[in-house]
């Protein structure tokens, strides 16, 4: 009996896993300073926190005009779709990240970026590096494991 139940549920579990994985790699950034995040998909729901413009979030679920998201800390919340931009940002997730002139550990060092610094994501390379732009205009490369939002 248990084996039959397992065999019947296995395709559903596998399909659910694939669907969740498809959304798990979609990131967007908060469009405007002061965007409110809620505990359920309603403007009447409990307000959990207010986010700063540019903060990257991972899209987990889409429901009508609402998105279930996860932030860098792992916190889950609901936010209105209109509160997020398609523009992608990344945030430094280590104490100090090296920003280099090229996607190479031997490339010249441009500067160090402290934990929490936001960058515009220009390219998510397949080489283990991401091309980023700082708000002051500097463009460089950071190791993908040193940022969150990719």
Your description of this structure?
This protein is α+β, with helices and mostly antiparallel strands. It has 2 domains: 2-85, SH3 Domains (SH3 type barrels), CATH 2.30.30.40; 89-148, SH3 Domains (SH3 type barrels), CATH 2.30.30.40. The chain is 15% helix and 45% strand. It has 1 helix and 14 strands. The strands form 4 sheets. The chain has a 5-stranded antiparallel beta sheet, covered by helices on one side. The relative contact order is 0.15.
Give a short summary of the structure.
This protein has 150 residues and is α+β, with helices and mostly antiparallel strands. Helix content is 15%, strand content 45%.
Question: Rg to the nearest angstrom?
Answer: 19 Å
- Specify the structural class: alpha+beta
Main sheet strand line-up: 6-5-4-1-7
Find the CATH superfamily of the largest domain.
Answer: SH3 Domains
Number of helices: 1
Tally of structural domains = 2
- What does the average pLDDT come to? 86
- What's the story with the biggest beta sheet? 5 strands, antiparallel
Give the helix level as a range of percent: 10-25%
Spell out the blueprint of helices and strands.
Layout: H1 2-24, E1 26-30, E2 35-38, E3 47-51, E4 56-63, E5 66-70, E6 76-80, E7 84-85, E8 89-92, E9 96-100, E10 109-114, E11 118-124, E12 129-133, E13 139-143, E14 147-148
Antiparallel strand pairs: 1-4, 1-7, 2-3, 4-5, 5-6, 8-11, 8-14, 9-10, 11-12, 12-13
Task: Supply the key terms.
single chain; about 150 residues; alpha+beta; SH3 type barrels; five-stranded antiparallel beta sheet; 1 helix
